[in-house]
Design a protein that fits this description.
This protein is of the alpha+beta class. The protein has two domains: 3-55 and 158-294, no CATH class; 60-153, Alpha-Beta Plaits (2-Layer Sandwich). Helix content is 72%, strand content 8%. The two termini are 19 Å apart.
Length: 297
């Protein structure tokens, strides 16, 4: 196909989009909603996985060691823990190191001098897991080891994150399917209206020998443009919204202050091809459906 012909067909697609701008805006709006919900589901799921990964590496499991163990017994205890399934790494924290860390966390060096002679903090093993899903079984095995007094880990927090991710995904995917159907119907009606408006022109084109593809392509271009515009708007909205959320999340305090969200650039770079493919795909499929049903060429 010649370049001049392609330019003409593309121009006709733009003209058709402008002629039916009211329906086109409705179609674009529906596609934007579809993509925003998809982005929400993806963003929540990706960030929860990222947060869980950080919890695994930054917090993991703390196993407090019973008082009175010799250095050799502690070495044997550490070796025994390292051999357990699902253990990624084990770090020994002595009583003195625990007190130093406590003083640093509270930004009060006098605490170390105050309790140096009579340190109330126990020694511990800081354990990171291979897979946080198996943390519960690992805890049971650790509690059965002689020499371990108590274990502490973020079970409730991690399980809450997992539950939130699953709930958001179920809700978002359900809404997404409904909106995709609505988007296809709106896109189909937009093309149907274009076919009706250009009915006389199409008949003349057929009479003078225009090929089927020559008549169909402008409608397909119109649908793809609607999808592309919807994808572009969605990308801009998600970028600004995610930047704002990231900025607010950076100001939280407490344990969550040590965690971070996935960088905006990483999220957006993943969403751009997804948005473009889905947005243009909805526009193209809706157009093809309308052409097949309403354009008898």
């Amino acid at each position: 196909m010649k370049w001049s012909t392609l330019k003409y067909l593309f121009k006709e697609g733009i003209i058709g989009l402008w002629r039916n701008r009211t329906m086109a805006v409705a179609s674009i709006g529906t596609i934007v909603l579809c993509l925003l919900i998809l982005g929400m589901s993806y963003g929540v799921g990706t960030n929860i996985d990222y947060l869980i990964e950080q919890i695994e590496t930054k917090f993991g499991i703390t196993a407090y060691i019973k008082e009175g163990l010799t250095e050799l017994e502690i070495l044997n205890l550490r070796y025994e823990v390292e051999q357990l399934e699902d253990v990624a790494s084990v770090t020994y924290i002595s009583k003195e190191e625990a007190l130093k860390n406590f003083s640093a966390d509270n930004e009060d060096e006098s605490l170390f001098e105050m309790f140096k002679e009579d340190n109330p903090l126990p020694a511990s093993l800081e354990i990171t897991t291979v897979d946080i899903k198996n943390q519960g079984q690992l805890i049971e095995r650790l509690n059965n080891i002689e020499g371990i007094d108590e274990t502490v880990y973020f079970q409730n927090e991690t399980q809450t994150f997992i539950n939130i991710r699953n709930t958001v995904n179920y809700i978002c995917y359900g809404i997404l399917i409904c909106l995709i159907v609505v988007g296809l119907l709106l896109m189909s009606n937009t093309i149907k209206l274009t076919v009706y408006i250009r009915k006389r022109e199409i008949n003349i084109m057929k009479y003078v020998g225009a090929t089927d593809s020559f008549i169909r392509v402008p409608f397909l271009i119109e649908g793809m443009l609607v999808g592309f515009i919807g994808a572009l708007i969605s990308i801009l909205m998600v970028t600004f919204a995610y930047d704002w959320i990231s900025e607010k999340a950076a100001n939280v305090s407490g344990v969550l202050a040590e965690l971070s969200l996935v960088p905006t650039a990483e999220i957006i770079s993943s969403l751009i091809p997804m948005y473009l493919a889905l947005g243009i795909g909805i526009g193209l499929i809706g157009s093809m459906f309308a052409i097949h049903k309403h354009l008898k060429v």
